[in-house]
Amino acid sequence: MNKLFRSLLNPDVGAVNHGPSLSRRGFLIGAAGAGITLAFYRPGLSFAQPEEVIENQTFEPTIWYQIENDGRIIVNIAEAEMGQHVGTALARIVADELEADWSKVELHHVDSDPKWGLMVTGGSWSVWQNFMPLSRAGAAGRQVLIEEGAKLLGVNASQCRARNSEVIAGNRSISYAEIVQRGNMSRSFSEDELEKIQVKKPEDRRLIGQEAKALDIPDKTDGSSVYGIDATVENMVYGRPLIPPTRYGAKINSIDDSEAKNVEGYLQTIQLNDPTDTVPGWAVVIATSFYAASKAASKIKVDWTPGETANVSEQDILDRGLELIERGDGGALVVNEEGVDEAFSNADSVLEEDYIAHTVLHFQLEPVNALAYQKDGIWEIHTGNQWQSLILPTLANALDVPENKVIMRTYMLGGGFGRRLNGDYAVPAALASKALNRPVKLVFTREDDARFDSVRSPAYQRVRMAFDAEGNPTGMEHHATAGWPTQVMVPGFMPAATNGEKYDPFAIQGAAHWYSVGAHRLRAISNDLANKTFRPGWLRSVGSGWVNWALESFMDQAARKAGKDPIEFRLALLKAEGKNAGEAPNSVGGASRQANVLRRVREISEWGQEMPADTGLGVATTYGQERNMPTWTACVAKVHVDRNTGKVTLQKLTLVTDAGTVVHPDGARAQVEGAALWGASMALHEGTVFEKGEVKDQNLNTYSPMRIRDVPEIEMEFVDSTELSVGLGEPATTVVGPAIGNAIFAAVGVRMTEIPIRREAVLAALKA
Known about the structure:
Layout: H1 3-9, E1 58-62, E2 65-68, E3 73-77, H2 86-98, E4 105-109, H3 126-153, E5 161-163, E6 166-169, E7 172-175, H4 176-182, H5 191-196, H6 217-222, E8 237-242, E9 251-256, E10 266-271, E11 283-287, H7 290-297, E12 301-305, H8 314-327, E13 332-336, H9 340-345, E14 349-357, E15 369-375, E16 378-383, H10 388-399, E17 406-410, H11 426-436, E18 440-443, H12 446-451, E19 459-467, E20 473-482, H13 485-489, E21 519-526, H14 528-533, H15 544-562, H16 566-573, H17 591-604, E22 615-622, E23 632-641, E24 648-658, H18 665-684, E25 690-691, E26 694-695, E27 713-718, H19 731-748, E28 754-755, H20 759-767
Parallel strand pairs: 3-4, 8-18, 14-28, 16-17, 20-21, 24-27
Antiparallel strand pairs: 1-2, 2-3, 5-6, 6-7, 8-11, 9-12, 10-11, 13-21, 14-19, 15-16, 15-18, 19-20, 22-23, 23-24, 25-26
Helix pairs in contact: 2-3, 3-4, 10-11, 15-16, 15-19, 18-19
């Protein structure tokens, strides 16, 4: 067994003092001659063949879980846990099909390994992409347990059923633990056989959709959960980065650390040489403690030559976006139906509006950090990360080693929200460790984290609609420009548009709406100045957060122009015809399901009721992020506007969500609540701008997310559904902002087209 596999199986490599348990009781890669596929489907089952009770024997029907001989069921989780209880949801899927006793289920978050396929936690994909593979895995294990249990009971398998970790035949039963101890698990399944395995009908499920305690909460509550920032190792030193004034193109001319040498514990400052251009112009302060490294960093003088974007402002980026839109000859035509130009030339009237969304930072609770070191020829990176498969090739390139010589150890994430999809913060830790030939724990301060953040790009959009004489839409076009994270980090994920141009799907898909508006054109444009100034990132709700701001604000304006109720206007356009009819398995029902959540939110909110003075209701709806994974969501926001100060008080949010089958109800509610509150925070409170090539606000003294005092009443409801499970981490974020903007108009008659909505802007609009 080579050193890589030995490091995967040996938890003692590097003698990490505060990491999670990393042991596994089997390594089944290729166990039955089955290959390992990419994505989320893992074929191949292999069963051990004991002829008698064997102490410490385990049953591993798939790589996804194992059953110990004491009956414990350990589910392997390849998704990152950052507060969304993803392990509980995925284990729930396995346990339901396995007919497991939930009290015996445990979670094991796995390290990076090719056998897990594409390791990424984002885009609300986790349950959606894993539901059927995990269901089949559980069903396959249940099938074998019933067969072996029947043999041990001396009956035919057709006489048996599985319940609560037991195989039952009449008034006799045998536990899974005993079957594992005594059974002959010799059968293996091919990929084709797994594909054909029948899973339960929705009405036969016993765990999915039922209340359950999240399995990760006890450890988080008592403090035993281990995060990346907790990891330590023998002979480790601490590092704090010295970040240049521009993200790209900076060069160090000189470093003066003479004053830092008086700091107890300070060791040295090293200049990084990064062949990947992830951290150009960086230096790292090395010390025996983070306190010493941070104190020394404040005393070190670095002379930099900055890159070309040293004087770029937020307005420069937005102006560039407008310029690109008005040029009219660039970008990707994501939707380009015939007749758009004719619809506008023949229109009785036209509505046009521009919308702006400003820069947003992640500000996750745990600033980014990484511990890196080499042991027995293997580089270990200990950190919290959402997309191991993305950063591992970069780390290998930076360290000049084959990719199979780098492994990422798994930890809890103290908040991710998309920031840790980009694992760039691990690169300087690895480079520093290589330069020093000893373990380096690199920790970013809050300011470092903000300056190095992969921010949500400022965005400029223009939306137009053509109307006939009766006020019915006959054509629509939407132009959206921003920095594109997929373009700069993983261009291979970019599909081709109708005109052959590649585009970032995560920066536009929320605009590929399900409304029937006549001829439709949707153009996505990459803002090259944004891409040069910073590394655009994915932020919870991805691009849809700013895309839906424009789309749903505009739909409200269109309804007002047509003289129609905003909900009735939308319902009339959600016809579920043609491309909007939906299709199996993901979008069954199409636009009719979006219409359904709109009708329901109208029923349970105060819609149609008389409001107090300067108080209004606004509505917005969305299908989420992707047309091929729609999460139908509708929101009504209730706000009060103070005409004297411009202050907007968000009083209530009412949300209805159709996410198909809801696996873990409590986790689902938490996801929608958290997403909705972040949407409200980005609409009314947080946000920053670029000044001289960097974000203006770098700590929470000036960057102000929503405070507890600002949290509104929330009423939410899920549509009872047995359709395919889809995403819940992000859709609610996208509807709240436009619902608030539309509510402001309903309250005081002023239309906000820029987020965040500042009281100064509201007051100016009121006085205009």
